[in-house]
Amino acid sequence: MAPPIPLPPLVDQHCHGVVRSALDDRAFEALLTESDRPAAPGTTFFDSQLGFAVRRWCPSLLGLDAHVPPGEYLERRRELGPEEVLRRLLPAAGIGVHLVDTGLPGDLTPPAELAAAGGGTAREIVRLETLAERLAGAAAPGTAAGEYVDGLDAAVLAAARTAAGFKSVVGYRHGLDFDPRPPSPGEVRAAADRWLGARRGGGTVRPRSGVRDGDGRAGGLRGGASPAGGGHGPRLTDPVLLRHLLWQAVRTGLPLQLHTGFGDPDLRLHRCDPLLLTDFLSAVGPAGCPVVLLHGYPYHRGAGYLAHVFPHVYADIGLALSYTGARARTVLAEALELCPFGKLLFSTDAYGLPELYVVGSRLFAGALTELLGGWVADGSWPAGDAERVAAMIAAGNARRVYGLGPGT
Amino acid sequence: MAPPIPLPPLVDQHCHGVVRSALDDRAFEALLTESDRPAAPGTTFFDSQLGFAVRRWCPSLLGLDAHVPPGEYLERRRELGPEEVLRRLLPAAGIGVHLVDTGLPGDLTPPAELAAAGGGTAREIVRLETLAERLAGAAAPGTAAGEYVDGLDAAVLAAARTAAGFKSVVGYRHGLDFDPRPPSPGEVRAAADRWLGARRGGGTVRPRSGVRDGDGRAGGLRGGASPAGGGHGPRLTDPVLLRHLLWQAVRTGLPLQLHTGFGDPDLRLHRCDPLLLTDFLSAVGPAGCPVVLLHGYPYHRGAGYLAHVFPHVYADIGLALSYTGARARTVLAEALELCPFGKLLFSTDAYGLPELYVVGSRLFAGALTELLGGWVADGSWPAGDAERVAAMIAAGNARRVYGLGPGT
Amino acid sequence: MAPPIPLPPLVDQHCHGVVRSALDDRAFEALLTESDRPAAPGTTFFDSQLGFAVRRWCPSLLGLDAHVPPGEYLERRRELGPEEVLRRLLPAAGIGVHLVDTGLPGDLTPPAELAAAGGGTAREIVRLETLAERLAGAAAPGTAAGEYVDGLDAAVLAAARTAAGFKSVVGYRHGLDFDPRPPSPGEVRAAADRWLGARRGGGTVRPRSGVRDGDGRAGGLRGGASPAGGGHGPRLTDPVLLRHLLWQAVRTGLPLQLHTGFGDPDLRLHRCDPLLLTDFLSAVGPAGCPVVLLHGYPYHRGAGYLAHVFPHVYADIGLALSYTGARARTVLAEALELCPFGKLLFSTDAYGLPELYVVGSRLFAGALTELLGGWVADGSWPAGDAERVAAMIAAGNARRVYGLGPGT
């Protein structure tokens, strides 16, 4: 076994808040899957790589033996209560900076509260579709399309003044095979008119489905502890408005995170292949805005290719490591084939459970150590460069891309 | 090396019969490939992962040393004769239950005969396209389309009374990118009318190509020992009828097996990506019918994703292990990334040669032991759960999905 | 660690020439990537698997320690001069035969010069698109389309008399999803008429972009040492003419190399999936021309499938090994899943830098030894067959496919 490679405090460049209230067993288990449906008869979500990883890394932090059965773990968790569980787990993740996507509904810890609990700092990532939906939900009846669009553009600019970056789930809402060009102002206004009209009429609005990432990312919580937050406008799926949001974000120059690869069943995975973004990435190149391809699995090799050929494109491997558990080393290795070492970013994509920060960071650190340590041991890599590259992926690359100063 | 993980008698949830007659060398070799064509000049199908796996596992069962050259092995096989070879090989596979797709032509052992030879039991999987083609072949000239469709629907219902499940090769006949909705009765009748008419006229019927899985799966046997069975109607490729068959099967509630991933050159592999089924899987969810995605390679990670997010979807890894031989452990590992452990099923997809049962089960057992044993050894998995999960994949999951009682 | 498997002198079945002149640091670094753009701010192309592989294998050949920092290596290189660097590096690659794609512009070593420097022999691979563009560039103003097409057909036939094979970059120029049928003579003439007219008018001709493989493969050299060669006609992207070229090459019976998989950002990677060629491969089968699928990554498993089912199809793994460095063993292993062992070919795809021949051959030899040696050690493969298969992939398969006599 290779000796551990020392890592700096991690920059978790994509995560969500933690559910503040106590979770019953069913709600806990529902947060161990990307599915928004119950487990199949005779099965449990604990029987998965993620479930086994939670049982490996978390019990000892709550005073239990590693790998205790799920029932014992859940009992101990109830005994301690949500605040104590958070207090014990989150600091163990070794995360120095959290970049928090605040676009999910529910009673989740906001960035500052998360940072305080974890002993680090936090910055906000603004989810574009949520911004547009909140604005539509808050608009007075009869608001004209032009007025709405002006307000939206102003809201993106305003968000850019404080946010660390933007995020889009256009992969969920349409697929990544969208028209790469910016829509014209007339097209945007017409699309806004249709959308606001549909919202008022209620006629063509698709019912909320409680999906995890596309909309609510809280499928398992629907009957559970934390009802999805209300007050939003209708779900935004109009491709013209989705493209307009992307281009408005690009124009701010802030990093833009794009969901790619797997997620809940609200998406069509083969339409979330990051390679479908090639023409869009070409088109936005001159704008100088970094684009971060989130997750990527099972298309992470393609994401690495895009990061290889486009200077402004970066790849993330967060969610894929948590969900593949004992296989994290191999998945990380695949991401490190074509992706230049200055282009890969760490994240946990943790959501809801503090356990997911622990699992995400432990799997990452372990996989990185074994992988790079193995390459040093067989002579492929020099030891000094392995340490340097590990620090880049763990924190340095994200600090550079998001412009995080040493005090962040 | 990790100690072997004990496995129960396997449930081989997808296999075919064994050729009853003696095979000449060319016919034997033709059953070592998914190709329906001869080997390239200067090459042999023995020079493949499957060929090497046969030479690893089978010679000792016939009294030879492992890895003897192909010529010696074939000579010994001829010496013993097909019945003795079957008697020596099949029981060594350790299979307790065979679920046999009976839709391939040729003089193959029927399920009961196979079970008797192997010392286990067997149940039938009814191939939908073969059912429709046999019915068309047996129909009196001038049979009306409505009458044919009524007969077909009745035949599906009748099959459901005894079969363990259904199988479709719509991936071969059309691709998995079919319209996910059930066709209307009028559309089905019109399609049947066209198809029966073409059959009578012979005009638009595509010539039989002797493909292995799509139709005959016996390409190499065409000039060999076992001529493809005759008496069928024309090849069914009409997408409306193919979809009707799928929906009729779904309505019975029995498990539905779908070919996905690689096979003979009669398919277009990129149109057999299981992710293309996403909308169909969504649509059939409420019907309560389990859907099993067969093979999957090289899209088995996508199949694992579908099994992750849809409660009624299961993944199989059989054929991929046999054909990748020394690489079986890695391929199995990839399947075990997103696929919940209660959702993966074992099979051999063995066809024609008793060797393929041996190779399929040995490669599976070896890969599972090394993989799970390795995860226990490095602390990722607890030993007890590794044994439990191994037994689930080897037999338990299939017993639950197909409702196989302890006596089966 | 497994003992090394002895390899014969390699047949590098796809490579390019070496830049003859001295390269400044920026030009050197630009040849370490498939990108045609500068490295992202704060990053260097040396921080990549290829960069680390160069630092592993090449410094000792120039009298330095392995893994010296890039600056020291470049300094030593400048000190020695390009001829001495070539003289020291190329023979260390152990390549006996170079098949050189001569279709790239720039001041590159022609095949005979490359062979002399490396101590081996060389044959030419003629790039079809370059042939057509050179002919168009040399055509007198007012040349009729029919005359141009006749000249083109004659040029393909003439090239076939001396070339070892043809190569097409239709994947770059259109994507592999082209109409598989040969175009009619009338279509070809009309397309030639449009193309020659556009060339004269200059109106619809796409500006040269300096892309690496599609056109110039020398993006990083644009401001550097070696300007792209001039005098060519306009870039050929017309799908009818591209298909005509493919079919004319097929009719000669010589091996046809097709770019598949990753390359510079001038291609759309998802449109370079070799599986998109399935219908074309079926269509050209009867012509008896071997087709070699180059590179393939990340679709190399699909390329292996095509080589498995089609007798006339072969797979190559060259470029993928160089660019994945420490991961080369795994990438090679994936190629060796479905691909019959008589169907995989070695290459370096080296271009510009002599370092790339060294890296390509060392990574290949190391990966092959570890992989096959590991399979021998765990009992999967017999030792004798491992040596035999290694020699096939290293040289024998290519010798057979390209008809290279023992004197070549």
UniProtKB/TrEMBL annotation, chains A, B, C:
Gene3D superfamilies reported for this sequence: Metal-dependent hydrolases
Region (Disordered): 199-233
Bias kind Gly residues: ranges: 217-233
Domain Amidohydrolase-related: from-to ranges: 188-404
Signal peptide bounds: none
Superkingdom per UniProt: Bacteria
PANTHER family, per the entry: AMIDOHYDROLASE 2 FAMILY PROTEIN, NODULIN 6
Protein's recorded name: Amidohydrolase family protein
Organism this protein belongs to: Streptomyces lycii
